[in-house]
Design the sequence.
């Protein structure tokens, strides 16, 4: 081997002056949120350019460009060596015809990952950093792995309140914004953590029936067994175009739609698609997510509900107050009139947990059914009352009475039916829960002294909610109720045997109920 | 709508007593580290069980089970509705024939994600937590997103030294362990960050020529332009089975192989496959990665090299000392004799950066070529000397002279050739760098007062290293050298024009060299 330096001096070979192209082919594979490109192993470009399976590539044609993950194909019937295959979503996103010429290239890593690495190292990020991260996510430049890194890094050392403001603004800028051209556009949001807490489906019809504009957009469940959008979906379409949404709201003064596909704050939805499977939920991310969505939906008056209780998301009053101040700080700087109410979060609200079971509770309240869950009715009326008082014509303290009148008179039910019809009524919705169920009974006599929100939510999730609409938990006893041995505490419904088994195993370990002395029933430390 | 409670009482439908099966089909798609399963949209199981594209499923047959990500297919020529398709790696991992019956099920989320979430919240994890995480990763239960969450969470608030010990032990337990049945099994490792630092390829032949056992296994580059395994691959096979590895080491007393496919600490390799694209590299993870790999390879005497310099991984002496103590703490508890040397990390070592260019430097030193880079030779002799002194028969302080004698006499070159032959010599390796290159010259006269390790490494990476073996950077001036205006500082080689452009753009922004007054050349603050 002669390795002297001179002999190895390379000869300059010049550039490739033309770039090779491939013929686009649509592949009948659905890869959901992730774009996948298929290249044959014997494709010339694959060999020459040093691509690797699972590396990210950029595909361009006529000025359109998308990013995709590369899969390498050894089967000519899927793609041949002159073709580039794209999975369904990727093909749709590129917006060109099959057979057209495309070029491919190594995707540059998203520039804003530098800021994410600085965050991992504990640095504070600037408004520009958050804007770059948000833009790169909006343009699908982040893999799920990269989004996970951002979420964990910004969740852990936490974002300071200015950073949360920057993030909120960046997420807001990532999508379309609605403008209702009205002085008073109301909305409400609960930070979550309380199973069965479907107050929005009562508050919205009440407020809209009063004539106040309440263009409620809802997220789907992140880690809970159901979100308002998941539950509303039993009754009506929730996936609406911005145009549809606008028409409905102008006509009905309110709606109960999913914000996801409406192109409002799309970065929020992408982040949620990572938060959900990871089961993480950080405070700064939560504030940014809620406020960016509400602002994008054009709200200028917002009521935030923070439930507090030993198994709620917020467990102490001091924590609830800190969170309230954080909402107020960001809200004030983004020009939204924001009020925060701190509510009783000691136990689930209503009887049902899971889309179908919750719908039943909501409809019972709307129908003034004497069996309707009292706590769901009361809480909804309290919240609706607070929102009604945003109206300058409503005297301070009169909101609750007006809300109750709207509900009792049937005007809320009528409005709900109008909203359902406007969004698209589901034909013959079934309110029957899943056919496979088991029951959990009291093992000793006494009083119910605690119901673990988190555990009941997990049981409902394991049972299949919210993906299986008919799965969930139905509670027969609530806090403070006396029980005898063998009394039914709750019933768990599934659609599939695998879910039944997951949920059953979980309940066998810990069913979430504690039975004890009447004296030990905790009093609510919230005066609401 | 009649929604009264009684009417909705479900009828118990009983369980499905038999489970449907699908016929296994191998799909000619290479999805690298990620298992992918293909199910037709009209497949009965897909519809009934509520699977979703991109959800994780478990596939089982005859007691074998694997996890895979689900893609939904609309093309009968890929899979039909009775079939389950598997990507190449997934099919291989399941270890059964095509056409055999398989069952599928929702994959349970990895149990240990609960511990990861506790880590995200800043909690300290137990030895058992780390063991569960490591087991779940070893069994491919973690997605890349979940591994990213673990890495970021444990990198950010940091692991305390006991947690690092637990993690190291868990990673060590995840794979096979080699036992050499000898009292003295040596190894060395540099924490990295210094481009061109290929001392292992000199130290191993010297130590093995002395007769001391040094079963060196190397990682591939994480964020650098080349790892020892990437560079050694120019000369020999580096992907060896544990059996091959054992035979070679018994015969030659040393080897230069990649630890990845040798089933030693496999969790480390999986984590590296996430760390690399994210560009993160945490201290605790580094210590656990290095020590688990070395212990799994059966070493009981280890020399760790920590380079310190203004652009090295470790920038201050106090940081180097803290890291030394961390290595000592974990090493002592895992019964390895461990010594740490702190070395001069002010600039790259040798002339070449990138697999081919580094190989040339190494071969020049082994061949006692007068043009061989002096710093690479000196540092390698110093490190080899320290390792030789692990031998009870070597008098303290004599190691360096023995190492030099082995190198100068040609015994190191002879041993290197023997190792190359044993691992599998590459036929006619080319040492020619990439054919597309550009040069960076001095813009003013003066002395080189700094060379930015990080920037030079980035230029080499952008140029294509280590994936393109012939890409990299060749340095013509080092720290302290006098230069005139227009003198060649370094040359950058690529194999592809896209890489040329990435690297060129980067150099135009900042080329990594600073030219200044002779008085400002920093002195090494390491006495080594």
Sequence:
């Amino acid at each position: 081997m002669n390795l002297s330096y001179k002999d190895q001096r390379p000869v300059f070979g010049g550039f490739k002056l033309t770039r090779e192209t491939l013929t686009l082919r649509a592949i009948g594979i659905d890869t959901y949120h992730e774009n996948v490109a298929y290249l044959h192993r014997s494709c010339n470009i694959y060999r020459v350019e040093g691509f690797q399976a699972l590396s990210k590539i950029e595909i361009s044609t006529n000025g359109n460009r998308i990013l995709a993950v590369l899969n390498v194909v050894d089967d000519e019937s899927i793609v041949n060596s002159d073709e580039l295959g794209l999975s369904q979503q990727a093909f749709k996103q590129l917006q060109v015809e099959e057979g057209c010429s495309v070029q491919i290239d190594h995707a540059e890593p998203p520039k804003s990952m530098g800021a994410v690495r600085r965050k991992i190292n504990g640095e504070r990020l600037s408004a520009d950093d958050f804007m770059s991260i948000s833009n790169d996510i909006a343009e699908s430049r982040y893999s799920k792995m990269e989004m996970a890194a951002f979420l964990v890094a910004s969740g852990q050392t936490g974002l300071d309140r200015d950073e949360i403001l920057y993030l909120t603004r960046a997420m807001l800028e990532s999508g379309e914004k609605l403008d209702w051209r009205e002085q008073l556009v109301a909305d409400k949001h609960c930070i979550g953590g309380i199973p069965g807490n479907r107050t929005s489906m009562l508050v919205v019809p009440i407020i809209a029936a009063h004539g106040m504009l309440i263009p409620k957009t809802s997220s789907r469940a992140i880690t809970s067994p159901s979100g308002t959008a998941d539950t509303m979906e039993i009754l009506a379409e929730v996936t609406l175009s911005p145009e549809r949404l606008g028409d409905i709201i102008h006509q009905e003064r309110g709606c109960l739609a999913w914000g996801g596909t409406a192109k409002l704050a799309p970065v929020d939805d992408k982040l949620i698609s990572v938060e959900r499977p990871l089961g993480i939920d950080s405070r700064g991310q939560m504030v940014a997510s809620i406020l960016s969505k509400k602002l994008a939906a054009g709200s200028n008056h917002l009521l935030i509900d923070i439930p507090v209780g030993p198994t709620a998301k917020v467990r102490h009053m001091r924590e609830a107050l800190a969170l309230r101040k954080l909402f107020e700080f960001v809200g004030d700087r983004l020009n939204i009139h924001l009020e925060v109410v701190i509510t009783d979060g000691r136990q689930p609200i209503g009887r049902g947990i899971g889309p179908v079971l919750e719908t039943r509770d909501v409809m019972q309240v709307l129908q003034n059914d004497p069996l309707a869950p009292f706590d769901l009715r009361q809480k909804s009326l309290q919240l609706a009352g607070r929102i009604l008082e945003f109206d300058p014509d409503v005297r301070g303290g009169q909101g609750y009475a007006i809300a109750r009148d709207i509900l009792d008179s049937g005007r809320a039910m009528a409005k709900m039916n109008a909203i359902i019809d406007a969004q698209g009524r589901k034909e013959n919705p079934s309110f029957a829960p899943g056919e496979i169920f088991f029951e959990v009974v009291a093992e000793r006599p006494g009083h119910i002294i605690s119901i673990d929100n988190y555990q009941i939510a997990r049981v409902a999730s394991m049972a299949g909610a919210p993906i299986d609409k008919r799965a969930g938990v139905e509670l027969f006893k609530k806090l403070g109720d006396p029980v005898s041995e063998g009394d039914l505490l709750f019933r768990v419904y599934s659609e599939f045997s695998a879910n039944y088994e997951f949920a059953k195993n979980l309940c066998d370990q810990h069913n979430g109920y504690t039975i004890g002395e009447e004296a030990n029933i905790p009093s609510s430390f919230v005066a609401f």
Q: What stands out?
A: Chain A touches chain B through 88 residues (CB under 8 Å). The mean pLDDT of chain A is 88. The two ends of chain A are 86 Å apart (CA to CA).
